[in-house]
Amino acid sequence: MTEPGLLSFTLNGVPVDASGTPATRTLLQFVRDRGLVGTKEGCGDGDCGACTVALAGEAADGSSAYQAVNSCLVPIGSCAGRSVITVEGVSSGRPLHPVQQAMVESGGSQCGYCTPGFVMSLFAGYHEPTRTDEPLGDDCIEGNLCRCTGYAPIRRVACSLGPAVAGPPAPRLSRTRPPEHVTAGARDFHHPATLAQVLRILTERPDAVLVAGGTDLGVELSHHRLDPAVSVALDGVEELQTLHIGDDELRIGAGLPLSHIERRARGIFPALDEMIHWFAARQIRNRATVGGNLATASPIADLPPVLLALDATVSIASPDGVRETALDGFFTSYRETVLAPGEVITAVAIPRRPEVPSVSWSYKVGKRGTDDISIVAAAFRLDLDRPAGTHATITAARLAFGGVAATPARAHAVEDALVGHRLDTPTVARATAALREAFTPLDDLRGSAAYRRALAGNLFEKFAHDVANGGHR
Amino acid sequence: MTKHGAARSHEAAAAHVTGRAVYTDDQVRPTGMLTCWPVHSPHAHARITGVDAAPALAVRGVVTVLRPQDIPGPNDVSGHTHDEQLLPTDEVHYLGQAVTWVVAETDDAARLGAAAVTVDYEPLPAVTTLTAAIAADSYSGPEKWITRGDAEAVLATAPLVLDGEVLIGGQDHFYLETQASWASIDAEGNVVVHSSTQHPAETQIVVARVLGLARNRVTVTCLRMGGGFGGKETQANGCAAIAALAAYVTGRPVRVRLNREQDMVLTGKRHPFHARYRVAATQDGRLLALQVALTSDGGWSLDLSEPVTSRAMFHVDNSYYIPQLTVSGRVARTNTTSHTAFRGFGGPQGMLVAEEVLERVARHLGLRPEEVRRRNLYRDAADCPPDEVDAATTHYGQLIEGNRLPRIWRELLDSSDFTARRAGITAHNASRPHRKRGLAITPVKFGISFTNTKYNQAGALVLIYADGSIQLNHGGTEMGQGLHTKMLEVAASTLGVSPGRFRAMPTATDKVPNTSATAASSGSDLNGQAVRDSCLTLRLRLSEVAARMLGRTGSEDLVFVAERVHAPGEPGHAVAFDEVVAEAYAQMVSLSATGFYRTPNIHWNPETGRGKPFHYFAYGAAVSEVEVDGFTGCFRLRRVDILHDVGDSLNPLVDRGQVEGGFVQGMGWLTMEEVVWDATGRLQTFAPSTYKIPTVSEVPEDFRVQLLSDATQDRTVHGSKAVGEPPLMLALSVREAIRDAVAAFASTPEAARHVPLASPATPEATLWAIERLRDRAPRLQQVAVPP
Question: Does residue B397 have a pLDDT over 50?
């Protein structure tokens, strides 16, 4: 392995040497320890947005942009070579940045504790290079909790901000490639540029932890439940950042943030678009990846149901080569997958079959509509022998769920029973009843087993109803 | 004519948006400051049989582990109920209770040290739910009653008597800034505490008590809070006392800052309540008699549970005249965290029961709930002939003067286009089997004053410096509600200068002593009068100086305006405020003054359940429209219209913010914020990943908030009214709109005559409410592929 370099990055336009701090320390802790206490810890879970900062990265169009991220989830090792702006870097205060000025005038702050996070989310949105003349809207601030204002004045700010009148205060440095290997505070952080390098590191250091978006891992770091000696950042690996829209498939690089997928692949699979919309908040979507969402193998992960319903396959690389496996069967038990030590998910492919008439959609039910962990998530796809209508017969069915079993799961028996039938009332009633009995979910704080069973059936019934009313073609 | 004040931004808004506003744990740390970390009990109730701190002391960086015997004064951190030890000596009473705290050089060392402490327990039987406490007869303190007339007699003979019960969930405050304090002790033994507290004086009392000091040795300062909502009225005291004790033991500055999980596990929440009622009504929906038994879940210690329960009893009528009413209130004792003040302070729970009763009657009779509500609204004392004044008198005997609800009701029905929308929704629901809309209007009448009469006092201290700059001190704390902004405006308008001339000082016990909590929506009412009083004193002194400067003999009528002082009608012949101040100094006139205020003519006798506990009532009403999905129970809030009475607003921007924010917080409580404990008493919802407060997307895009015009309130500062708590209860309209939509799923009109709905009305609860009303089989028939 190469000789490690020093961990450094740019903070509010000024280079900082972070080599004395463990590379696994969160960016939030790091900036606060440096006296930049405008960035607040509201939860340390990536759920409240009070710690939002702007991190230089690539916009969906390839240009450089600042992205809002939760600094409590970002290990500073991930920041090597990057540019970070905290609230202190937005303006010197005189004059205020347009986002700050609007927040002052609208009454957008009351206690002020969440305010720096809102300012940073609005700041990143305001300077987003792909932004059109459309106002920012709720999407930009969904990941920021405010307990005082009821959001109304902040929404007025988001809706009032026109096109950026000037660039951001510090240049949107597209990241300079950091040393392949940095060490800081006795923690190693690798920034490989190629998949081959990733695989080599994993061979040499089997204890290494892969960091894709880090939105799940970051919670473990933030709460000191994990402190890996060796981390491998995947966000600089070119092969994992690809998005290929082919005639026969959509192939998504495992390391591509959801923000990019939602913008660049929009309209190909409406069921996927729908689920990404409900997938966490902006700060998370700016970091979270498909590969990470599959590898963490949570039974309540949002993407697996829709990927299962769309017959996705997973490409897995190891030093022996690349293998491709169906996602159905990828999850073996609670938080376990077929991934062997040293293997890396490289891409997810979803077949496109425009010649097959089909209807599909996805649903997510949580206590809160927005940015919640699902009680039940479901995705359905019905292939038909002719365009949807009274006489269409189901030729294949995919009924996939999260939150009803130890893994994301399909209801294979009910799928089989649907084949050869029309989507008529008796068929829907039978399937709904069968789905209610198909799983043995658990009671937990989010919902009872009975509610989950009811939803498993009801969501299919809702889908059938929506289809009957002309939706989801 | 509307006489609302200027819509000035929050005085700290520029500091908020630049990240420069300093909060307790953001202050520059003194050299050598230590950090504390709690050791939590894994049992809901257990005897402590041994604590071994040695393994913690072996952790590098750990300085000490606090022990009860380290406490020089009484081991008592309660306000005045004497039932909460700072460090438990014998027993732990809830799962997560801090058994001890580890004091260390760094967060990491403190955390690792806390993990190393071993505590031996002997588990004891625990009562972990309100229903279990009621079943086990586990209560704190006696049952209390408020009685008007003879409800029992009417209920025994009335032709229409209905009954019901409802279990009301709690709510975590989820202030964005968790509890934080730090303390230092100087060589002479004087203690300085910085605390994120709504009640610096009580924090001072508690710190002085546990350290065995007179109160004059302890100074408590609150810079500002990142949200309070009642959660820092008493619950800041424990953290402050731990920091102070650790500073006493180690001789070094010590901080305590809870992380989110610690905060949610350790601190109390809005009280869960159980209510059982019987109601008698006429066939046209007029209430005749009501009997209600309220039981609050106080958790393991009393804290503020008794006054919270009392306020629920005071508000069980909401806005409705109930001729015969008996309400009882009791605090259940459970092995959970000690529940505490939360915006509304029991009022929301009492009013939820009132709305539950109104709905029960209306739906049973097949009448529109909005019509039944209107028929039962209190009248205004001024509109009642002597023999009907009972209809403008509460069940505890307070006359309702200046009742604005009838007017608010009319204006809001009109401005919200209620009647047309009701018709539109009926039509919509007739054609949409799976998505039903609901509409509801609910009123708010909320009593303003601490019900413990002696708390209704406030002080201020204004310091004018010879350069004309001014420091403003008052006893209230700033938690985002805009109190300092309003106080600056009161002071500035009294002295005829701009608010920019002032510095709003952090709240400190060495500036204004013996203050009350900033609570009960009273901050502006009480402190505003005290600030005005001190500024009037100074103006009087400055007037005499200015009169001499202007060559006048009389000084009483001088005008202070626009940074100048002049005689009436002679603005051209004026002296600058700065010059008057400089001259006052030269003439050896005092430039500082205290101010004081006590609310007049309020009284309450808890023994008889009679009195005039409130200075006045705040009023409002809201119309909410929802759409409920019959497959999932999920709802969407389509539109909200609010008309709220804030008197002559001191600051419409601030007051509107309180109305919008209170409403959304109440909506969260009633629809998505579910506090869940497991059977062992372990809190399951201890993070925002599991406890969901509203995001921007739950707020209706069509959100119309109006402040009532022509609303000058008598005997208040500048004609204004309290606004902190009352708007929260406007959210009851969301709950009732959901119920209205649920009712529309009923398979028969008969089925819609009783529509129980759990609180919070989560999607799951709403789906079960729908399922109860509809016949499953016909619904499936409605799914069919169109031709």
Answer: yes
